User: Fold this.
Amino acid sequence: MHNNYVYIRIPSLSVNESFARAAVAAFCSSLNPTMNEISDIKTSVSEAVTNAVVHAYEDEIGEIEIQCRIKGQVVEIIVEDFGCGIADVEKAREPLFTTKPELERSGMGFSVMESFMDELVILSEKDVGTKVILRKKINEKKQKSLNEEIDVSEDEE
Amino acid sequence: MNIQFIETGQVLTIKLKGELDHHSADTARVLIDEKIKNEKYNKLVIDLKGLDFIDSSGIGFVIGRYKVIRKRKGVIEIVNAGKKVRKILDMSGIGKIIKIK
Assistant:
């Protein structure tokens, strides 16, 4: 089976935050995730895209690229911007750290991504951009039980 | 995002419906702060029954309103948070400063 993927490129407008998370969630639905897994993915994508909207492009609109790949049971989501970069990635990962408290930023974005996904990688370079890589394994169990249910109903016929 | 206000004396209940993210929080902030400028309110009840989605921007938004109402010695309370919303609220530790019912 071929590995499935999708690329989405959007301007860094805040109105696109809900589109981005809904699009990624819809793409992942082929893995038959649970409501909890979908909710975790949606929230993490929202955090990554919002970071790009708020921090990457100071007072201007740039582009955000979202790549989503399914590799077996693992979903890999890359949210990339081509903006100012993160000055100190280690600092940015600290819970409650924010460079924009005046905008009511909670400083929890990376903490949320870290706890809701299996893996979080942040690559950033000043004035080049930031790449956030998120990975999560979708549990296979539910799919098996669904197949079993289908088998049973076919037997009955 | 849909916002509904219910006044009961000095208590203002704010019902949030839909998705509370960075984009919708910007709109909600303006509407709610305009409403609570009226100093008669000493208690804010944020009803999340109809909320399907919240992320850390939503948490920042709630803490922001807490700061506004605390300045005049008022209190704030969160009610009816569903399971998904509750997960983020619990993770944020917001329960230490705001009562969650």
